[in-house]
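Possible regression after last week's pipeline update?

I re-ran a chain I had predicted before the update to compare outputs. Posting the input and the new output here so someone can diff against the archived version. Not blocking, just want to make sure nothing changed silently.
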Amino acid sequence: MKGQILKALRECSDYLSGEKLSEQLGISRVSIWKHIRSLKKDGYVIGASPRGYRLVSSPDLLLPYEFPDLEQRIHYFPEIGSTMDAARELARKGAGEGTIVIAEAQAHGRGRLSREWLSPKGGIYFTLILRPSISPAYAPRINLMASVAVAATIRKLFGLNAELKWPNDVLIEGRKVCGILAEMDAEMDVVNFVNVGIGINANTSVPQFEKTATSLKDTLGRKISRKEFLSVLLGEIERRQALLMEADLLEEWKKLSGTLNKYVRILSLGEVIVGRAIDIDTTGALIIRKRNGSLKKALAGDCIHLREETPDTDMGAVSRQHSV
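New output (post-update):
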C-alpha cells in the first residue's frame, strides 16, 4: 500500500487530498494517514496541508515499494549479517525464482574464498535466487551472466569503460567496483538453486591508500541514484538470463573482458597456473596458454593479472583485487 501511495503522490504535481487517495486506493483516510506517517519514518519528506499531501523528496533507500513490479519478491533489511545467508535459508524453504534479498549494510558480508566484503551503507548489496534448468557443469555461466549485466549497466548509465575480470569481478580503470559470488545447491545433474550475491561500491568512498578498488561515487565525483542503478541492473540480468546457454552471452563477456590476452596467474584448488589467458570455453572455464605452448583450463580460482614481461615471477603481479 505504501508503494501505491507513493505512486499516486509522484503522479500528482500538486497536493493530493486524503479523500481522493482514500477513494483511489479503497482504504480509509485513517489508514492513509498511518501509511503516510510510516513513510515519513522511512525518510520520505511529505508535505501536509488542508489541501492534502505532497511528496517533497525521497530517500535513496532500496525499499521494496520503490520497485513496484518486484515488490512481492523483495526481502529488505536495513542491516543484516549477510544477504547470502538469508537467501540460502529462503531458497531451502522453497522461495521461488527471482526472490531478492536486499540490505543497506551487511555486518558479515563475504566474497569468494570466504573473504570479508566490507559492506557499509551507501553500497548496493543483494542476493538473487535463481532456479535454472541447466546441468551443474554450466553453473559458472551464471557468474559470467551477472558480471556482464553489471558492466552493461555501468556503461549504459555512466558511459564508463567497465571491464570484466575472470571469474567474477567488474573493474573500472583496473580497480574493482563490484564483486559477485554464486553458491549452488545441486544433486547429480540437477540444479536446485543458484544464489547470486552482488556487492557494488556505489556511494561509498574507498580509502586513497587502497589501490585495487574504487567506487562509482569516487570515479564519477558524485553520488548516484542507487534505486535507478538497481532497477536497470535487474532488468539487464533478466534479459541475459534468457541467453544463459547461448553463445551470444559468451561473446558479450569476451568483448567486455579485461582478462583475455593478458598474462595471468591462477590459484586454483592448490594448483598454480601461469600463462596468457586466450579464451573461455562453453562452461565459462578460462583457457590459458602456458609458456611451453600447452593449454590448461581453470574452472575456478583466484586470477591475478601479471605484467607481460614477467609472467613467471611474483614481482609481475599488478594486484590481487581484494574485496572492499
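Follow-up from reviewer: compared with the archived run. The chain has a mean pLDDT of 88. Marking as no regression found.
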